């Protein structure tokens, strides 16, 4: 009996030790199921794009979320540009280790949704209707949130392109920034700003800016049937304007890779070589800092109009990846709700320059005081009434690369015609869209 007792005790001890070992292993590996049973918070990962002030904003908000409660812990991880973020997300999803929450640049919402990588959020919104007011999201930012009438992302860091003005240089040249209303005004101002040491505007070949000018000319990038349309009259007129200004020496278009070209254009403006600069409102905080460091005053204005005033919206929506168990889904949803809530929206806008995506945030004391102190922030909000959604056809990222290549070719070779270049881009694009 004594031997049997020892044997039973030994067996129980082995089982207890094994159970403890399994519990510790499960908790450290991040597998779902153990976190909610008293072994620590539910762990989820959030991937984001862009550094500098934008990256700091993401890290700050994640820290705030983690500190305000102890049931969910979010690890924020920087993944580079939008293209890099998307590529890494696709690879991670294929490998079975995708982040629970990530950003989709708005033109990629449909691609990710239809490939089955992102979760339909419609049911989550319906269940939390008393907590999240969808009518409070700015309607101008919702065009890229739905795919086949299902909600796949909530607006987070959203933007429009705006015109950055070196107000000091404008004053020296006797130009009123408010006078730039039309393409003709814009072209004239660039000409007056240009001399032996300065250029009117420096800008990269950026598809976002081209989308704006095409819409202003009454054209469209993709028609309602999902067919390429940028080689129509509006697209040709927009590109001819750029071509004329480059040939006249009033517009500088740096070459090279898109990010490198964008950095060079920013440097031209930051150091006072260029009088104007196109960029996202998301760069506003940084550009104000650079202007102060380089001794000039910065102003912002809306994009000029042609047949109409129109700008594409931009930035990212927050999305949830598919394949999560219920516990992880709820944790991811709670994090998405926090990041897109009015208070956090206002914080992110003030910290970076991105648009506040909630109407109540725009009217908050925080934002109203900011607009009064720094009216440069309000330009993008006012311009949003002219905002429109970006194309979301499958294959559009590849179309963008093709179009940028062809436009850059035109900028380098004045003998080419805008219509021919766009026809070539359209022919190449027809092979990649779905």
TrEMBL record:
Alphabetized PROSITE patterns for the sequence: PROKAR_LIPOPROTEIN (PS51257)
- Residues spanning the membrane: none
Location relative to the cell: Cell envelope
Q: List the InterPro entries hit by this protein, alphabetically.
A: Bact_solute-bd_prot1, SBP
**Cellular component, GO annotation:** cell envelope
What keywords sit in the KW lines? Answer: Signal, Transport
Pfam families from the xrefs?
A: SBP_bac_8 (PF13416)
The residues the entry assigns to the signal sequence are 1-18
**Protein family membership:** Belongs to the bacterial solute-binding protein 1 family.
Q: What is this protein called?
A: ABC transporter substrate-binding protein
């Amino acid at each position: 009996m004594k031997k049997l007792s020892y044997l039973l005790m030994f067996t129980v001890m082995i089982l207890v030790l094994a159970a403890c070992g399994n519990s510790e292993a499960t908790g450290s590996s991040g597998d779902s199921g153990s976190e909610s049973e008293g072994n620590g918070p539910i762990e989820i990962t959030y991937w984001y794009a862009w550094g500098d002030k934008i990256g700091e904003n993401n890290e700050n908000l994640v820290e705030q979320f983690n500190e305000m409660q102890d049931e969910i812990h979010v690890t924020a991880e920087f993944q580079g540009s939008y293209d890099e973020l998307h590529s890494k997300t696709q690879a991670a999803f294929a490998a079975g280790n995708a982040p629970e929450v990530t950003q989709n640049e708005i033109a990629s919402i449909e691609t990710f949704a239809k490939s089955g990588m992102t979760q339909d959020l419609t049911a989550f919104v319906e269940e939390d209707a008393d907590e999240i007011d969808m009518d409070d999201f700015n309607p101008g930012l919702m065009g890229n949130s739905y795919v086949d009438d299902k909600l796949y992302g909530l607006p987070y860091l959203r933007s429009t392109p705006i015109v950055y003005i070196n107000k000091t240089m404008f004053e020296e040249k006797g130009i009123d920034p408010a006078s730039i209303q039309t393409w003709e005004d814009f072209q004239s101002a660039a000409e007056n700003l240009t001399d032996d040491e300065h250029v009117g505007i420096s800008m990269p070949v950026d598809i976002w800016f081209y989308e704006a000018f095409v819409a202003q000319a009454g054209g469209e990038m993709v028609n309602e049937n999902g067919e390429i349309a940028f080689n129509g009259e509006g697209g040709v007129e927009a590109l001819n304007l750029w071509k004329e200004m480059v040939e006249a020496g009033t517009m500088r278009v740096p070459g090279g890779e898109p990010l490198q070209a964008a950095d060079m254009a920013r440097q031209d403006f930051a150091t006072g070589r260029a009088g104007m600069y196109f960029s996202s409102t998301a760069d506003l905080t940084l550009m104000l800092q650079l202007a102060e460091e380089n001794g000039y005053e910065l102003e912002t204005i809306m994009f000029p109009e042609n047949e109409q005033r129109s700008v594409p919206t931009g930035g990212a929506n927050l999305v949830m990846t598919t394949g999560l168990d219920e516990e992880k889904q709820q944790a991811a949803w709670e994090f998405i709700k926090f990041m897109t809530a009015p208070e956090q929206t206002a914080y992110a806008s003030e910290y970076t320059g991105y648009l506040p995506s909630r109407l109540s945030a725009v009217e908050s004391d925080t934002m109203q005081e900011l607009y009064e102190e720094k009216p440069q922030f309000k330009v993008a909000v006012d311009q949003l009434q002219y905002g429109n959604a970006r194309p979301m056809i499958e294959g559009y990222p590849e179309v963008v690369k093709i179009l940028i290549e062809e436009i850059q070719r035109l900028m380098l070779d004045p003998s080419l015609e805008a219509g021919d270049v766009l026809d070539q881009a359209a022919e190449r694009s027809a092979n990649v869209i779905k």
